[in-house]
């Protein structure tokens, strides 16, 4: 159950961070205004809280593993929201990152 909770928190963190950054991007680069920027800043704050709820107590481990989630999540966001088509190298890189997440977070430790 701890692993499922951890994965769920990583997904929540990714949605908040990537979504928040996207909202800020839309507000600034696409000239959608301060409401979009403010919503993005709030979502980015939610990301910070989601990361603190991970069951592991080591900040460095959590952020290192989250980096892999961020890479894969960013590509997924691009596919769903921006209709981006990753090439095989994008997919391979994201898969390598997710293997790294699994090793860092979920390998048995003594």
UniProtKB/TrEMBL annotation:
For this UniProt entry, which segments traverse the membrane? 6-25, 34-53, 59-79, 91-108
Annotated Pfam families: UPF0060
Record keywords, A-Z: Cell membrane, Membrane, Transmembrane, Transmembrane helix
Stretch forming the signal peptide: none
Please name the SUPFAM superfamilies in this protein's record.
Multidrug resistance efflux transporter EmrE
Q: Which InterPro entries match?
A: EmrE-like (IPR037185), UPF0060 (IPR003844)
Q: Which domain of life is it from?
A: Bacteria
Give the membrane topology: Multi-pass membrane protein
Q: Where in the cell is it found?
A: Cell membrane
The entry sums up its family as follows: Belongs to the UPF0060 family.
Q: Which protein is depicted?
A: YnfA family protein
Question: What's the source species for this entry?
Answer: Phytohabitans maris
The organism that produces this protein has a lineage beginning with: Bacteria, Bacillati, Actinomycetota, Actinomycetes, Micromonosporales
């Amino acid at each position: 159950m701890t692993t499922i909770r951890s994965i769920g928190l990583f997904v929540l963190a990714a949605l908040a961070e990537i979504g928040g950054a996207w909202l800020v991007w839309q507000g600034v680069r696409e000239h959608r205004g301060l409401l979009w920027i403010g919503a993005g800043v709030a979502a980015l704050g939610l990301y910070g809280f989601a990361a603190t709820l991970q069951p592991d107590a080591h900040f460095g481990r959590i952020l290192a593993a989250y980096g892999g989630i961020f890479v894969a999540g960013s590509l997924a966001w691009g596919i769903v929201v921006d209709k981006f088509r990753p090439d095989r190298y994008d997919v391979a890189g994201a898969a390598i990152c997710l293997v790294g997440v699994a090793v860092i977070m979920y390998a048995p430790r003594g």
